[in-house]
Amino acid sequence: MSSAAAVTIEGVSKSYEVRTGEDVLALDRVDLDIKPGSFVAIVGPSGCGKSTLLSLLAGLTPVSSGRLGIDGDIVVRPHPKAGVVFQSDLLLYWRSILDNILLPIEIKGLDRKAYADRARDLLAQVGLKGFADKFPSELSGGMRQRVAICRALIQEPGLLLMDEPFGALDALTREQMIMDLQTMWIRLRNTVLFITHGIDEAVFLADRVIVMSPRPGRVDLDLAIDIPRPRRWSGIHEDPAFQHYVRQVREMFEAKGVLVAH
Ligand SMILES: Nc1ncnc2c1ncn2[C@@H]1O[C@H](COP(=O)(O)OP(=O)(O)OP(=O)(O)O)[C@@H](O)[C@H]1O
Predict the structure, then answer these.
(1) In Å, what is the CA distance from 175 to each residue of 101, 128, 200, 233?
(2) Is 144 found in the same domain as 15?
(3) Is the ipTM of this complex over 0.95?
């Protein structure tokens, strides 16, 4: 696979011009260095600029100031090493599951046949062996999101950008997907940037949890998570180390008025 990518975020700000002509500052001078092969989760209140940061890194939106780098390349367009998974699976309903996974290959003008076996392998790895010829409407929400992950992984991205990928799933499916993502990542060891509202999934999955302030988003807390892997979801909520990290994140949210302690 392509090697894990390094990410540098230097003094990045982003403002949007809204209809009234005013500027909305979404991100304010964010600095972050992400080591190759690390799993970083970003948590923050709604509207703090998490999706904006991901969209900037995906090369889908330009920065207002500052610099973003992937393996030393300044990001000005989608980087070949980056794969993206959004909250909604964005599968094309008229294409089979296999054809959806191979879409990025077709867009790049690469040889479909050379990647078809890999697509089937990926499907098997996410528990969807035999689904290649089905259509999105025949799959559940969790299954479709697995397909979206396969589509992001087909080019073996050194950097996987995930924007609340499990946000739309029911609780049980989400739990299964969290564990499966850990298993997949232990195998791949690529760099993952994972955006979520869920403090528990951030602490469970990540090596490092970044807590963002309410808008304009800044880094409020940068927390290294030292819990051995593989981590087991069942029982993790009783693990004192896990509880300690969750408490630190919650206390930061309380200090910022994002959560009110009772
Ligand atoms: N295209 C846009 N045009 C104008 N304003 C935008 C645009 N995209 C985002 N914003 C504004 O920028 C701020 C940050 O939005 P963003 O979607 O990045 O936040 P978020 O942390 O991902 O929120 P959520 O957790 O609710 O998804 C918000 O105030 C939002 O209204």
Answers:
(1) 23, 17, 11, 8
(2) no
(3) yes
Q: Are the C-beta atoms of 100 and 147 separated by less than 8 Å?
A: yes
**pLDDT tens, residue by residue, 212-231:** 999 999 999 999 999 999 99
Mutate to test the pocket of ligand 1, among 13, 23, 51 (most ligand atoms within 8 A of CB): 51
Least confident interval from 224-228, 248-252, 257-261: 257-261
* Residue 181 to residue 187: CA distance in whole angstroms: 10
Which CATH number characterizes residue 175's domain? 3.40.50.300
Ligand 1 pocket residue status of 47, Cβ below 6 Å: yes
Please check whether residue 221 lies inside any domain of the structure. Answer: yes
Residues 17-40 pLDDT 10s: 988 888 999 999 999 999 999 999
Residue 2 — pLDDT band, cuts 50, 70, 90? low
**Owning domain of residue 190:** 1-27+35-81+171-262
Q: Are both 216 and 136 inside the same structural domain?
A: no
In the predicted model, what is the mean pLDDT of the chain? 93
pLDDT at 1 over 60: no
Residue with token string 């089979």: 96
* Ligand 1 probe mutation, 24, 56, 193, 194, most atoms within 8 A of CB: 24
